[in-house]
Amino acid sequence: MKSKSKSTLIRSLALHGLLAPLAIIWLFPLWMMFVFSTMPDYGIFSPGIILTPSTGFMDNVRNLQADTNFIGAMTISIVVAIVYTVLSVMLTSMAGWALARYQFAGRPGVIGIILGTITLPYSVVVIPQFIMVARDFGLANSWVALIVPPLFNSLGVLFMRQAFSMMPGELFDAARVEGVKEWQIFLRIALPLARPTMAALAIILFLASWNNYLWPLLINSRPGMMTAPVALGTLIGLTRVSWGGIMAGAVMLTAPILVIFVLLQRHFIAGIAAGAIK
Amino acid sequence: MAELSLNNIVKRYGSLEIIHGANLEVKDGEFVVFVGPSGCGKSTLLRMIAGLEDISGGELKIGGRVVNDMEPADRGIAMVFQSYALYPHLTVEQNLNFGLRMNGNPKADTDRRVKQASEILQITELMQRRPKQLSGGQRQRVAIGRAIVREPQIFLFDEPLSNLDAELRVQMRVEISRLHKKLGTTMIYVTHDQTEAMTLADKIVVLRSGNIEQVGAPLDLYDDPANQFVAGFVGSPKMNFLRAEVVDNQPGRVGVALRDQRNVRLSLPITAAGVEIGEHVTLGVRPEHFLDAGRGDADLTVDVDVAEHLGNTSYIYANIAGGEQIVIEREESRNTGNRDTLTVALSAAKTFLFDGAGNRLR
């Protein structure tokens, strides 16, 4: 027993010894972002590296707010991300359910196309998407244009399809024998059982929308409708870059995500593992 | 309660035919067991009756109505699945009333049915638990309860006991039998376990490769199997099959000799029209039908391999000349295992004869 606990201790120490430097390397840029967000612009470019925070965070935030109405942009980002996440989870769940549980003509082809779209880089899609949404549909500078085009997320569809495929078919057969309607089976049985996967997907989709820079930048030229990353981008001017403001904005953008991740971590990992292992 | 009628039922997946024209009549209140090896089509047939598989051909009637194209819920059936198929996120009570709630059944009636089912199955104290907090036997009861609350005309059971351990299986088997007596409803039960079939059924349907081989009462199948497959499937341990040859064919009597021990000859009281002398046949003897040496119609000496002693009875695994292994059931004989050889007797009246294609010769 004694030797066993000793070997466990040594293993644990070795593991921590290996992982701790990796964690520091990963956390260092985040820490420096926070440190820079507390400094005036000239402090950031001082010759020596300063590793401790200063006291100028609120000044940077005030400047950021004055330059970009950052609180307004954050609000828009939050609304867009929440609406996008809810709608996209609903849509991808329904598509995943259909692909997992119904046999219909052309199903393998549909799955193939969805898989294929994952391999396309976004930069290939973004121009035709812009032309279609802005010119053909005339939806530039609208909430619809901001939220709807990225809604159908291929990865999300495959993620949800996997979750539904793994559920025992007899559960749904039992419900059918009981006369439960298809939409009730989906809503009352399949979705509650897919909750961990949906939580993980929700985080992934929320992050994707929260960090999305290119599409909101392209489709939206009205200053009052800028999302937070786009607002931060405007601080990079031709003659002057407000690094203090950018870093303060980056901290404000990162903090809510970190909180959400820490709170939902259990679901997130369970969801990913469910998709990967089962 | 209702009768069930299968009229030339066919199931195809593309060009592959799985069920080849099944015909069966089930009377109101009967307990019918579909039995057969894995892949024989028994579960597919049950799922076709339930409406979970389309019927490719033929006519299925429940209570006199043709139900081929009817939704499962409208057929008046309830089904108990092998995996129990309980909704893991719902409590026992919610599992029981889920279907009725979703269909807008009046709450008072739903509550009455759930209460009644829970009392019949003695699960009233489990109502607020979730499936993962239940043992295998308790889960099975809840699954049966969920079927009972539908007040179906026909219960369908798809290998409901195969996930339980041996002891619990025996216990639940008795409970299902008791439930059938109490409710008096028609029940169709699928299993690959012939003991379950023999103990539960009013009528057994033996299936092989999508064909119904024989339908009959359990003891009728045991006493009078239609062919070698049924003879081998019904009875435990299974019937021994010995290679034999026709040596004589008189009106009303056929003489056979074992091919591996030609001195062992039997004269069977059967007609077997068309069987010719020299034709290869199979002699079927149940392990329990071997007699003590000298007390039957022919003696057979075997090399003892292994003896299993179960207390009141022994199973002796032995080889006859030529290497064929047979099983002999005897009243407990503790010294048999120590012997090298054993002589037993065959009784012509308790022996079956099958032709080369496995058909029974009568």
UniProtKB/TrEMBL annotation, chain A:
Principal cellular location given in the protein's record: membrane
Location of the ABC transmembrane type-1 domain: 74-264
GO biological processes: transmembrane transport
Regions crossing the membrane: 12-36, 70-98, 110-131, 143-164, 185-208, 241-264
Organism: Rhizobium lusitanum
CC annotations in GO: plasma membrane
Entry membrane topology: Multi-pass membrane protein
Classification via CDD domains: TM_PBP2
Keywords assigned: Cell membrane, Membrane, Transmembrane, Transmembrane helix, Transport
UniProt name for this protein: Lactose/L-arabinose transport system permease protein
UniProtKB/TrEMBL annotation, chain B:
UniProt-recorded Gene Ontology molecular function terms: ABC-type maltose transporter activity; ATP binding; ATP hydrolysis activity
SUPFAM superfamilies on file: MOP-like, P-loop containing nucleoside triphosphate hydrolases
One Pfam family, short name: ABC_tran
InterPro entries: AAA+_ATPase, ABC_transporter-like_ATP-bd, ABC_transporter-like_CS, ABC_transpr_MalK-like, ABC_transpr_MalK/UgpC-like, Mo/tungstate-bd_C_term_dom, NA-bd_OB-fold, OB_MalK-like
Compartment(s) of residence: Cell inner membrane
Keywords: ATP-binding, Cell inner membrane, Cell membrane, Membrane, Nucleotide-binding, Transport
Bilayer topology: Peripheral membrane protein
Domain ABC transporter, residue spans: 4-234
Any one Gene Ontology cellular component term annotated for this protein: ATP-binding cassette (ABC) transporter complex, substrate-binding subunit-containing
Family statement drawn from the similarity comment of this UniProt entry: Belongs to the ABC transporter superfamily.
Protein name: Lactose/L-arabinose transport system ATP-binding protein
